[in-house]
Design a protein that fits this description.
The chain has 515 residues and is an alpha+beta fold. The chain has helices at 7-11, 37-41, 64-69, 74-77, 80-87, 155-170, 209-218, 221-235, 250-272, 322-341, 345-356, 359-374, 383-399, 404-415, 420-423, 429-440, 446-452, 460-471, 476-485, and strands spanning 46-48, 58-62, 98-100, 104-106, 109-111, 119-126, 132-138, 177-189, 193-203, 274-275, 297-298. The chain is built from 19 helices and eleven strands.
Length: 515
C-alpha cells in the first residue's frame, strides 16, 4: 500500500473529461483477459462507456489473495498500466466497459430507469473455481444514468466498502469482493472537499432484482427471457437436479433459487448484527451476494429498531425489518417474472405466490439453526425447547442494550465455567442467571461456539477512525482493522481494542450513501 495524496493534491483543480469508447483506443494488456459477455448478450441493458481520467492515481489497498484467485498478477496491477486497468481508463483490447441499466424500488417507490450512475462493468474474468466473475468499478465518473450526480466517489466510502465486504467474506457471508481502491488525485465535493477514489470490486454477477424490473418495464418479452436465460446460464444455482436450466419449469426454478439464496443471506446478516441500510430492489442480487455497502453498519447494541442510514428517516430498513423487506423485494421480482411463468396471468401469480411462500420457512430454518450454533446447542434440539430460550435471550439483550458480538464470545467463556463476563453486561441479574442455568443444562459446546461467533467485526467507531485517518493520508489504522476483521474468529494478542464495544461518548451513529 502507498500513502494517499497529500492535501495539496486535494486542492488541485482537476481536468474533467467524459469520453465514450469511440473517442479513445484502449491500451491492450497481455496479463488480463476480459470477456464482454453481458454487453454482448444484453446490449439493450448495456451502455458502452469510458471511465474518467485520474490526474494522479495512487494505489491505496490491493487484495492480493483475490488477485491470485482471479489469475491476475499483483505486481502488474501496481504498475501505472495496472492502475489504469483498476481505474477503467485503459482496458484490454476486445473488452467493452458498460454502464448497466436497471430499475428499482427505492424506499418503496418505483423508478423505471436507474442504472450505473457512477459505475462501470469492465467485463468478466474466470475465477480459480472456473466460474465467471464481474470486474466492476465504483466512482469511475458520470454515465448517462448519473441523474445529476457527479459520478465520483470519495476515499472514505470506497474504503468502507473494502473493509466491510472483506469482513463479510471472512465471516462466511456471501458478498461482492473488493479488489482494490485507487485514489484518483481528484477532489470530490460533498459537505466538504474530499479526496476521490475508485473501488474495483468483483461479483458472481451484478444482476439484480432491479435488472428484471427494468426488462419487464420495457415491455420487451424477448429481452426479459434472454435476461432470465443469461442468469440461469451464468449462475446455475447448484441444485442437485441440474439447476434451473435442467428443471421442468426453468424460470420458476430460477425464482425459487433466488428466494432460497436471499433467505439464507438475510438470516446470516441477522446472525452477525449486520444492517445493510438501503435494501432497495436495485441493491438485491439474484446470486444472493451482499452488494452496495453504503449506509451499512454492525449493531453496537442489540435492538431490532436500529437504523444507521441518514436517509432512512422512517426506519423502513431497520435491522429487524430486513427479513420482511427481503420478502417484499422478492415479491417485486416475482411480478417481473410473471410473463415467463405462465401464459395465463392468474396461473403465473399462483405459481409465484407458492414459491414466494417458501421464503419465511427457509429464513426461519436458517436463522434458527444459526442461533442454535451461536449458543452451542445441538442440531437435534427440540425447537420447543430452543425457540423460547432464544426469544428470552434476545429480549434480555435488548433490555440491557448489550453488544451482541462481545456477548456471544463471553458466553463461550460461561460454557467453560466463568459466567461473570456475561453477568456484568446485564441489568437484570436474576433474569440472566435464570437463563444461564437453563442454557447450561443443555450442555453447550464452547469450542463450537468459538467457531461461529466472531471476536472481531468492523465496529463502527473503528471503521470511522480508519476512514478518517486514511482520508488524511494515514493508512496504518486501516491496515490494523483489516488484519483483525479478515481473521475474525481467532482471538489474537495485541488486537484487544478491536474486540471492545464503542465508547459511551461515540454517540448515535449515522452513515451516508457516499454519493
Amino acid at each position: 500500500m502507498v500513502a494517499l495524496p497529500s492535501s495539496d493534491v486535494v486542492r488541485r483543480r482537476p481536468t474533467r473529461s467524459v469520453r465514450t469508447l469511440d473517442d479513445v483506443s484502449l491500451a491492450p494488456s497481455a496479463t488480463v483477459d476480459l470477456d464482454n459477455r453481458f454487453a454482448r448478450e444484453l446490449p439493450e441493458m448495456a451502455v458502452p462507456w469510458r471511465a474518467e481520467e485520474a490526474p494522479d492515481p495512487r494505489l491505496l489497498v490491493l487484495n492480493e489473495p483475490l488477485t491470485a484467485e482471479l489469475g491476475l498478477d499483483a505486481a502488474t496491477l501496481r504498475t501505472p498500466e495496472g492502475l489504469c486497468l483498476l481505474l477503467g481508463t485503459a482496458v484490454p483490447a476486445g473488452a467493452t466497459p458498460v454502464a448497466q441499466a436497471y430499475a428499482g424500488h427505492q424506499f418503496g417507490g418505483f423508478v423505471p430507469r436507474l442504472g450505473d450512475g457512477r459505475a462501470l462493468l469492465l467485463g468478466e474474468l474466470v475465477h480459480a473455481d472456473g466460474r465467471l466473475r464481474d470486474l466492476h468499478l465504483k466512482g469511475s465518473g458520470r454515465t448517462p444514468f448519473a441523474r445529476g450526480g457527479d459520478g465520483l466517489a470519495a476515499v472514505g466510502p470506497m474504503l468502507r466498502e473494502y473493509v466491510v465486504s472483506e469482513a463479510m467474506h471472512a465471516l462466511g457471508i456471501p458478498t461482492t469482493r473488493s479488489l482494490a481502491v485507487v485514489a484518483t488525485g481528484r477532489p470530490v465535493r460533498r459537505e466538504t472537499l474530499q479526496p476521490g477514489a475508485v473501488l474495483a470490486r468483483v461479483a458472481s454477477s451484478h444482476l439484480r432484482v432491479g435488472s428484471f424490473q427494468y426488462a419487464r418495464a420495457t415491455g420487451d418479452a424477448d429481452l426479459l427471457r434472454r435476461l432470465a436465460d443469461s442468469a440461469i446460464d451464468r449462475h446455475g444455482f447448484g441444485s442437485d437436479d441440474g439447476g434451473a436450466a435442467g428443471a421442468d419449469h426453468p424460470y420458476l426454478a430460477l425464482f425459487g433459487s433466488v428466494v432460497a439464496a436471499q433467505a439464507s443471506l438475510v438470516a446470516r446478516w441477522m446472525l452477525v448484527g449486520f444492517v445493510h441500510g438501503v435494501m432497495n430492489t436495485d441493491n438485491m442480487t439474484i446470486s444472493g451476494e451482499t452488494i452496495d455497502y453504503g449506509p451499512c453498519a454492525f449493531l453496537d447494541a442489540f435492538d431490532p429498531a436500529t437504523v444507521y442510514s441518514s436517509i432512512d428517516t422512517g426506519g423502513r430498513y431497520a435491522y429487524g425489518n430486513q427479513p420482511i423487506v427481503a420478502e417484499w423485494n422478492l415479491a417485486r421480482l416475482a411480478e417481473a417474472l410473471l410473463p415467463l411463468l405462465a401464459e395465463d396471468e392468474e396461473r403465473a401469480i399462483a405459481l409465484a405466490v407458492e414459491v414466494l411462500g417458501t421464503f419465511r420457512p427457509q429464513y426461519d430454518a436458517a436463522w434458527s439453526a444459526g442461533m442454535r450454533a451461536k449458543l452451542g446447542l445441538p442440531d437435534g434440539l427440540d425447537p420447543a425447547v430452543a425457540l423460547p430460550l432464544i426469544e428470552e435471550l434476545l429480549a434480555l439483550l435488548q433490555q440491557s442494550h448489550v453488544d451482541g458480538t462481545s456477548f456471544y464470545r463471553d458466553l463461550a467463556t460461561a460454557a467453560r465455567g466463568d459466567a461473570e463476563p456475561v453477568r456484568n453486561r446485564f441489568l437484570d441479574l436474576p433474569a440472566i442467571d435464570g437463563w444461564l442455568a437453563r442454557w447450561r443444562a443443555l450442555g453447550p459446546d464452547a469450542a463450537a461456539m468459538d467457531r461461529v461467533n466472531p471476536v472481531y467485526i468492523p465496529r463502527n467507531h473503528l471503521v470511522e477512525e480508519a476512514l478518517t485517518a486514511a482520508t488524511a493520508g494515514d493508512l496504518a489504522p486501516l491496515g490494523g482493522l483489516l488484519d483483525a476483521v479478515t481473521s475474525p474468529f481467532d482471538e489474537r494478542p495485541g488486537l484487544e481494542r478491536y474486540a471492545v464495544p464503542a465508547p459511551e461518548d461515540f454517540g448515535k451513529y449515522r452513515t451516508f450513501c457516499g454519493t
